[in-house]
Amino acid sequence: MSRSPHWPTFVSLIILAAVTVGILILTSSNRGAGPSKSLAPRPTATAGPALAQGMGASPSPTAPGVPASPTAGTAIAYVPYVAVGHSDVPEPTPIPTTVPRSAASSPTPAAPTATPAPTATPRPTPKPRVMRVTKLGVGVYDGGDRVIQALEVMRPSVILMMDPNVDWAKKIRQKFPNAFIVGRIYVPDQPLDNPAGRGAAFADLVAKTAVPLKGVVNAWMSYNEVTDRTKKTTYEAYNIFQVAFARRLQDHYGIPAVAGNDATATVEPEDYPKYFRGAIEASAYLGIHLYAPAGVSSMRHRDGQYLMLRYRQIKAQLDRAGVKHGPFVITEAGLWDGWRGVTSEEEMAADFTWYADELAKDAYVKGVTLFGLFDWENKRWWPFNIYPTSIVDRIGEYNSE
Fold first, then answer.
1. Which residues 6+ apart lie within 8 Å of 199 measured at CB?
2. Is 153 exposed, middle or buried (0-12, 13-18, 19+ CB in 10 A)?
3. 67 or 338: whose pLDDT is higher?
4. Which of 129, 223, 291, 350 might form a disulfide with 400, Cβ 3.0–4.6 angstroms?
5. Of 71-80, 149-158, 339-348, 375-384, where does mean pLDDT reach its minimum?
6. Is the pLDDT of residue 379 over 70?
7. Which of the two residues, 266 and 100, has the higher pLDDT score?
8. 40: which strand partners?
9. Which of 264, 396, 392, 374 is nearest to 330 (CA)?
10. Neighbours of 371 (CB within 10 A)
11. Strands 285-292 and 136-140
12. Helix %, strand %, coil % for the chain, to 5?
C-alpha cells in the first residue's frame, strides 16, 4: 500500500493532539482534586510555582487559602491554558490604590462655632454725686486721715473744728470750699474775774491760730458753756467778757466772733435780750447748743422738739426786744447722753436729717454742727461719736444731689 509523502507529518499531528488531550485531562483532574470552588483569590506570582520548582528554586511559602503546590521533584509540563469565553480561575482582587490627599484637598473639620456671649444691657454711666449746700454739718474734735475720710463721705456744709492744726484745717477747706467753718480753742479753765481783760486776752490766744487761718475758718468761739441758770450773777460778767473778746478779735484782727454757745436751756429765751444784748450785737454770729432732754430717745419726740427748736423762741425774744443779731449757728446738737445704747443708727440719722430740714425753714440759721465726729479710739465721747457708723453714710446721702 503506497503512503503519502505527508504521512509522517500527519502522524506527528495525531501524536501531538493525543498528548495535548492527555495533558488537558490531567490538568482537569488536578483542578477537580482541590478544595471546593470557593474561588478564593490568589496572589499574583512572578512565576508559576511549578515552573519555579522545576528550575530548582527554593519553594515559596504557601499563601494562606491557596492549595498546596505539587511535591517538589515531580515533573509537570506546563502548557498555558486560555479558556474561550470564561475562566475558572478568578481574577486577582485588585488592591485599591491609595490616592494621597494633599493638605489642600483634605477637608479640615470646621471648629465648632462658639456660642456668642449675651450682650450686656448697656447701663448709663453713673454721674458723680454733687455736693449740695444744706444746713447739716458736724463738729470735728479729733484730727487724722480717718476723720478726713469720714468728712469726705458726710460732705458737711457746716463744720466746727476744735484746736485745729493749721495745715489740717487748710486741707479741710480745700475739700469743702463752700462750707461755713467755725473754730474753737479748748481751755480747761474759763475764769470770769476781770471779764474785760480776760475777754481781750482770750482773743489774743485765739488769734494765734485764727490769723494763720484767715480765709480758712470763718468765725471763732470764745468760752464754751459757761452760763448756769442758777447763777445769774455770772451773766453780767460773761456778757462783758464776750463784748471784749468780739471787739478785740474783730476790730484788731479782722476775724468774726461767735457769741453765746451756752449749754442747752441754761439761759431762758427772754434772758438773751435782757442779759446778753451787748455780746449779741457786738458779735458777728450767735452760737446755741441744743440737745433733746435726758430720757428722750429721739429729737423728733414731742419733748425733744421743744428743746431742739428752742432757737425759734430765742429769735422771737430778740426781735421783740429789738436786738440786732447776726446769723444763728447751732454749734452742738444731739441726744442728752448720746445716742449709742439709746437708739439705732438709722433712727439717729433720721433725727439729724429731720433737724436739718427744720433749720432749712429759717433763713437766719447757718446750720448745725452735730456733736460729734471723733476718732474711733476716743473712748471719752464714745456715746456721741457717729464714727464709724452708717450715720456718716446717711448724712452723706442727704448732703448729695
1. 222, 240, 241, 242, 243, 244, 245, 248
2. middle
3. 338
4. 129
5. 71-80
6. yes
7. 266
8. none
9. 264
10. 23
11. unpaired
12. 35, 15, 50
Distance of CA 117 to the CA centre of its chain: 22
Give the cell for residue 220: 471763732
Q: Calculate mean pLDDT across residues 85-93.
A: 44
CA 324 from centre of chain: 53
pLDDT band at 113 (very low <50, low <70, confident <90, very high): low
For the chain, how many residues are written?
A: 401
In angstroms, the CA 341 to CA 335 distance is 11
Cis peptide leading into 372, omega within 30 of 0? Answer: yes
* Cβ neighbour number for residue 370 with a 10 Å cutoff: 27
Q: Are 343 and 297 in contact (CB under 8 A)?
A: yes
Dihedral over Cα of 138, 142, 143, 148: its sign: negative
Element (H, E) at 317: helix 310-321
Most confident of 19-33, 35-49, 57-71, 257-271: 257-271
- How many other CB atoms are found less than 10 A from the CB of residue 327? 16
> pLDDT digits over 352-369, tens only?
999 999 999 999 999 999
Res. 15 pLDDT band, cuts 50 70 90 = low
234, 237, 243, 245: CA torsion to nearest 10? -90
- Please give the pLDDT value at position 121: 53
Measured between alpha carbons, how far is residue 105 from residues 90, 100, 101, 109 in Å? 36, 10, 6, 12
Are 346 and 394 within 8 A, CB to CB?
A: yes
Alpha-carbon gap, residue 164 to 213, rounded angstroms: 10
CA 51 to chain centre: 94
Least trusted range by pLDDT, from 85-89, 154-158, 219-223: 85-89
Q: Burial-class residue 44 by CB neighbours within 10 Å (0-12, 13-18, 19+).
A: exposed
Would you say 125 and 105 are in contact if contact means Cβ atoms under 8 Å apart?
no
Among 3.40.190.10, 2.60.40.1930, 3.90.76.10, 3.20.20.80, name the CATH number for the domain at 136-398: 3.20.20.80
Q: From residue 373, give the alpha-carbon distance in Å to each of 135, 201, 226, 333, 362.
A: 16, 29, 22, 12, 25
Spatial CB neighbours of 214, under 8 Å, sequence gap ≥ 6: 254, 255
